[in-house]
Write a structure and sequence with these properties.
By secondary structure, this protein is an alpha/beta fold. It contains 20 helices and 16 strands. The chain has helices at about 15-25, 35-45, 65-70, 85-95, 110-145, 150-160, 180-185, 205-215, 230-235, 250-260, 290-295, 300-305, 320-335, 345-355, 360-375, 380-390, 410-420, 445-465, 470-480, 485-495, and strands at about 5-10, 30-35, 50-55, 55, 60, 80, 100-105, 170, 195-200, 215, 230, 240-245, 265, 275, 280-285, 310. The chain has a five-stranded parallel sheet, with helices on both faces.
């Protein structure tokens, strides 16, 4: 048996001495505690590799220690022992996460055998987690930085900051992969062997978020029956990722600022400061600078978290990555849903490439999932066609992260319409009126309506822009559309100030 560091929590001195001698003879280091309080303190101080825990202790049930121990390690072996036949407590212990149970009295060999079994099982779990953490993140890393130049620039910044401990702010629209970037920073850092802890600041109300981040002491408030460890403690020596930091309440922002400045914090109801030895990564899909000006985000905290800003571009600005992403999601979800491997037709891929993906990579992933579940492309194609007819196909989301929209490639059909003689005199035209549709050939009523709508939109936009002397924000208000949508329509209609 390899050398282990064992914590024995038992109030029987004879049993503790017997166990210490037994394990020391086998080359193990042993520390002994006689109560719940001593046991938890020794666990936090010593960080053992195995725990032998008595169910009945002077200050309560040893079962109560399982959760706080499991909070810091999901794989540590915990063996329960007891001289009394309390079935309910044994069942509760196993539900809470105990690895095994031994009834007193027992032979030394019986305990050693149990320890060998739980240690082997724990090692197998660790190796499996390591294998999973190596295989999938490598695939995700390669996928994240794909083929596009924009993501190559992101990768270059990531490689520069990964080996440092500076705070990084990751910004981008929802669904662009900000969490994957955060994980990539962690994986490329010296803290890779320690925890990566994520906190979604938008998912919890202020009071719960505070206890989630910093933990609390027993008796700090009604219902606080035991000490709770916060995420900053769980991330000790590793990385904590604060997602959607823009949603954090102003009171909590001041506490976070203290952690960033002093590298320590108080649990709720605590009197002793706890050191915060972890790297802090933050992410948001909001414009924090604008929130600072609107006094919705602390200026001093903004400067603290924005030491380095990694901007993750939206999918519409890195369309070279779409085929790679589609292949990855097809392979992944065909295996997950036990479906025959499939490919996307050129027609659907063209629609994917020309769509603006307001939900970014997450929206693309969901569409590929639906394709696999439905088993054919017909419904997806019809939905994209309907979005195109409703004007949603090329609409750019107004998220406030950027001032100008990215250029959106038009479909081949749109390009053909733009270059067609619809705005000039032509055979079958309306006597040369500018902007009149050319109805030669087999034109459907729907096509005629779309052309007429486009002409009417162009004329109205041009008129309003003239009235506002090309003040585009004022024009957007008059037209009752978003500023970005107006910029897109100006570009799409080929309008300019000359």
């Amino acid at each position: 048996m390899t050398e282990e560091y064992v914590l024995v929590v038992d109030d029987d001195p004879a049993f503790s001495q017997f166990t210490r001698n037994l394990l020391t003879d086998k080359g193990m280091r042993v520390v002994v505690a006689a109560s719940k309080a001593e046991g938890l303190e020794a666990y936090e101080r010593e960080r053992p590799t195995c725990v032998i825990l008595d169910i009945f202790l002077p200050d309560g049930s040893g079962v109560d220690l399982i959760k706080p121990m499991r909070a810091s390690s999901l794989t540590i072996p915990i063996i329960m022992v007891s001289g009394q036949s309390e079935v309910d407590e044994v069942v509760r212990a196993m539900k809470e996460g105990a690895s095994d149970y031994v009834k007193k009295p027992f032979q030394g060999e019986e305990l050693l055998l149990k320890m060998q079994m739980v240690l082997d099982a724990s090692q197998a779990k660790v190796e499996l987690q390591e294998l999973r953490s190596k295989v999938r993140p490598e695939a995700e890393y390669n996928l994240l930085f794909g083929m596009s130049d924009r993501m190559s620039k992101v990768q270059a910044v990531l490689d520069q900051v990964a080996g440092t401990d500076i705070t990084v702010l990751i910004t981008g629209e929802s669904g662009t992969g900000k969490e994957l970037v955060a994980k990539a920073v962690h994986k490329a850092s010296d803290r890779v062997d320690d925890p990566f802890i994520k906190v979604n600041c938008a998912a919890l109300p202020r009071e719960l978020l505070e206890s989630e981040l910093f933990g609390f002491e027993k008796g700090a408030f009604t219902g606080a029956h035991r000490r709770k460890y916060g995420r900053f403690e769980m991330a000790q020596n590793g990385t904590i990722f604060l997602d959607e930091i823009s949603e954090m309440h102003m009171d909590l922002q001041s506490k976070l600022l203290h952690v960033l400045q002093e590298k320590q914090f108080f649990r709720i109801g605590g009197e002793r400061e706890v050191k915060a030895n972890c790297r802090i990564l933050c992410a948001t899909n909001k414009n924090l600078e604008r929130m600072v000006e609107e006094k919705k985000f602390r200026r001093d905290l903004f400067y603290r978290v924005n030491v380095v800003n990694i901007v993750v571009p939206p999918l519409r600005e890195r369309k070279d990555d779409i085929p790679l992403l589609v292949d990855y999601f097809l392979n992944r979800y065909c295996q997950m849903y036990n479906r025959v491997a499939m490919k996307v037709s050129p027609r659907l891929m063209e629609m994917f490439l020309n769509y603006t993906w307001q939900g970014n990579v997450r929206e693309l992933e969901n569409n590929v999932k639906r394709l696999i579940i439905l088993g054919n492309e017909a419904q997806l194609i019809s939905e994209f066609q309907r979005k195109r007819e409703n004007g949603q196909y090329g609409a750019i989301p107004d998220d406030g992260l950027a001032a100008d929209p990215a250029p959106v490639p038009r479909t081949r059909a749109a390009a053909d319409r733009a270059s067609s003689p619809a705005s000039t005199d032509g055979e079958g035209g309306n006597g040369g009126e500018q902007g009149s549709p050319n109805l030669s050939g087999k034109a459907t009523l729907k096509e005629v309506s779309k052309i007429a709508q486009r002409i009417a939109e162009k004329e109205l936009i041009e008129k309003v822009l003239g009235q506002t002397r090309w003040n585009r924000r004022k024009a957007a208000e008059i037209l009752d559309i978003s500023y970005k949508a107006l910029l897109y329509k100006i570009k799409d209609c080929g309008l300019n100030m000359e």
